[in-house]
From TrEMBL:
<dbReference type="InterPro" id="IPR002888">
    <property type="entry name" value="2Fe-2S-bd"/>
</dbReference>
<dbReference type="GO" id="GO:0046872">
    <property type="term" value="F:metal ion binding"/>
</dbReference>
<feature type="domain" description="2Fe-2S ferredoxin-type">
    <location>
        <begin position="1"/>
        <end position="75"/>
    </location>
</feature>
<dbReference type="InterPro" id="IPR006058">
    <property type="entry name" value="2Fe2S_fd_BS"/>
</dbReference>
<keyword id="KW-0001">2Fe-2S</keyword>
<keyword id="KW-0560">Oxidoreductase</keyword>
<dbReference type="GO" id="GO:0016491">
    <property type="term" value="F:oxidoreductase activity"/>
</dbReference>
<dbReference type="InterPro" id="IPR001041">
    <property type="entry name" value="2Fe-2S_ferredoxin-type"/>
</dbReference>
<keyword id="KW-0411">Iron-sulfur</keyword>
<keyword id="KW-0408">Iron</keyword>
<dbReference type="InterPro" id="IPR051452">
    <property type="entry name" value="Diverse_Oxidoreductases"/>
</dbReference>
<dbReference type="Pfam" id="PF00111">
    <property type="entry name" value="Fer2"/>
</dbReference>
<dbReference type="InterPro" id="IPR036884">
    <property type="entry name" value="2Fe-2S-bd_dom_sf"/>
</dbReference>
<dbReference type="InterPro" id="IPR012675">
    <property type="entry name" value="Beta-grasp_dom_sf"/>
</dbReference>
<dbReference type="Pfam" id="PF01799">
    <property type="entry name" value="Fer2_2"/>
</dbReference>
<keyword id="KW-0479">Metal-binding</keyword>
<protein>
    <submittedName>
        <fullName>(2Fe-2S)-binding protein</fullName>
    </submittedName>
</protein>
Length: 150
């Protein structure tokens, strides 16, 4: 089937029921998207589909064929980081880092919907789990990125 990942058309041979996460990681070697729980609870596997944050561990790849998939590899580059990535560095958000690509993708979806999110907006949108407890710095970085983009 044809997938559109980070703006590029990619052909994969996969059972349509295969979770998008496994297609990304195992078939395409795009390992920036992480496996945490496998049951849509932690958010480590978050990618965007048509702009919305989606938990790829429970998303059958067949349901996203032909739709715009964005992964952490497509958010920004070292030379040209997304505002969120620059803010993440400025606020020194990550500790172990494992949850962070999912956090960034959820935050990117939030900022597209709400360019100046309130604390309540952030709490509602950011349901990702971080075992290192980076929540306060995640919130600060989202606000910093919103300010940078304004
Ligand atoms: S691995 Fe998908 S939500 Fe935890
Ligand atoms: S930074 Fe370690 S789990 Fe979030």
């Amino acid at each position: 089937m044809d997938l559109i990942i980070n703006g590029a058309r990619v052909q994969v041979q996969a059972d349509p029921a295969m979770p998008l996460l496994w297609v990304l990681r195992d078939l395409l070697q795009m390992t920036g998207t992480k496996f945490g729980c496998g049951v849509a609870a932690c958010g480590a596997c978050t990618v965007r589909v048509d702009g919305q944050a989606v938990r790829s561990c429970v998303t059958p790849v067949g349901s996203v064929a032909g739709r715009a998939i964005q992964t952490i590899e497509g958010l920004g580059t070292a030379a040209k980081p997304h505002a969120l990535q620059a803010a993440w560095i400025a606020e020194q958000v990550p500790q172990c880092g494992y949850c962070q690509s999912g956090m960034l993708m959820a935050a990117a979806a939030l900022l597209e919907k709400k360019p100046r999110p309130s604390d309540a907006d952030i709490d509602e949108a950011m349901t990702n789990i971080c075992r290192c407890g980076t929540y306060q710095r995640v919130r600060a970085a989202i606000k910093r990125a919103a300010g940078m983009r304004a």
